[in-house]
Amino acid sequence: MLVRFWGTRGSIAKPGPATVRYGGNTSCVEVNSPGGTRLIIDCGTGAHDLGQHILKQKMNNNEGAILISHTHWDHIQGIPFFAPLFVPGNKWTFYAPRGFGDTLRETLAGQMEFTYFPVTLDAFGAKVEYRDLTEQTFEIGDVRITTRFLNHPALTLAYKLECEGATLVYSCDHEPHAHDLADGCGQIHGQDREHSEFFRDADLVIHDSQYTPAEYATKIGWGHSTPHYAEQMCRAAGARMLALTHHDPTRTDDQIDAMLVDLAANRPAGSDIEVFAAAEGMEIQLTGTARSQKQATGDRPDTATSRQTRVPVVRLLGAPLLATDPLHLGMIDEGLIVLDEKRTDGPAAGDTPKAVGLVVIDADTVDSFSLLPRHIAGARRGLEGKPPVLIVSEHTKPTELDLPKDTDWLKRPFSREFARARMRTALLRSQFRWVPAPVPPDEEQRVAALHALGLLDTPAEERFDRLTRVTAALFNVPIALVSLIDANRQWFKSCVGTDITESSREMSFCAHAVAEGEMLIIPDALRDDRFADNPVVSGPPYVRFYAGMPIYMSDGHCAGTLCVIDGRPRDFTDDDRARLRDLASLVQQELVASSYAMA
Questions:
Q1: Where are the domains of the chain?
Q2: Which fold has domain 443-598?
Q3: 64, 68, 232, 432: most buried, per Cβ within 10 A?
Q4: Residue 69 pLDDT more than 80?
Q5: Model pTM?
Q6: Topology of the domain comprising 2-296
Q7: pLDDT(299) > 70
């Protein structure tokens, strides 16, 4: 891959005599692959010169992809000045992190409203498309791209690009999870280790390095790294080259030189990493290594698209499913083909495809559960391999029942989302990572008290809404909720950041907090076996972080939680926990007031 730097400055463009060598334009990197794929990573002011360069090539029907790390202004302000977007016949596709609010198009259009700019997105002559991203792997032309969330105040993605054995990682903007790593010393652990592993054996890492360690001490929470942290992460990952970028607007060329000298003086003996400061106009040809070639041709990580399974399903026992059955609806959602629902003795030779992906058996139509192993063997007869089996029943699986290890048991009642997730997991033959919350021992009395409270399905009230607004603002999260846990649903008495008013209890994080009776913190839902396959994690709104504090009624039963939600992983400090606990006590006071009012 050929990598060209068109913008290396952070926060604001800073042209002038003191920034000539490293450049004054904000973030923009161009990547061209051997197969002709053109990728642009971030579209700061450097995109203007890049656009002019593309036009001078006088190629018809230019096309490419623009990967936006996040939509802070210094990373998108070059879009209105990127000339190829205005040329008919061109085709450009924007990719950016999926947020909770506006679509990507609406976000990009914001800076081109009439108040700020003379033309709108509608003036683009090129065909322009928009794609929302979360953490996933996908392909553009001959380049495989993997994304990972970074630690920044806005939803921000790092991009790993792999092509013909070469690996490039773009990681801008990002802040150390552990603040004491800013000086490049100390033990790497937790989410910083995961951040480093994303760079494993990369040929080139382009990393945010806006602050010195001394500056960072007064900039904690601003979302940027130090060069010392960036180098430590790359050394630990075995990266070959590190390009420091997002230079602070106050940093002169001479100061960047001095920073590089300081890094070299403190580099551990034996380190062979090549560290340099990214400069406008710099070109790097990545040819890859035998090591990265082996990685690029190996097993690919799971992706959002690869999880859309399309294989036949055979339901061997019982009457056909009703159209309203959650199992039937889950099969439709997953795009599965249901074969021969009425058959009770297994598929006859020649009338069922051998490549069956999943066998579903209604155990309640079997004379005895002890006969299930024989039915499973019959169902698999004549099929290629041993397709996994999903047993569905109104009853809990008997503890003494011995079934094949690739047999799963699905107890009714369940939601269509839960059924879909269980079938998808069985088809992928992977661990099922979604655990509905257990039922509290006082469930019957708790639900009765909740209904007696008289708040369920009532209109919004300012006394609750002001508390969720304050909560969302205090923790800088897109979503804050007052969630009440009913028998089969969670209902939101107050919500900031979402129009959804209720959801299935199976999908509820808050139901776990209610069952445990204490604060529940989920730093990264994708890495928690209770939630990774939950539809609100694997799909919209792509929850990654959750913190919920139980709230109680006057009789001592738990009604639900005050909770905060984010679309990126994050830590929750002891001070954060104390603040959430204080805010939850204020919500609880309003619940108690409602109890007295009903009395």
A1: 2-296, 312-428, 443-598
A2: Beta-Lactamase (3.30.450)
A3: 68
A4: yes
A5: 0.62
A6: Metallo-beta-lactamase; Chain A (3.60.15)
A7: no
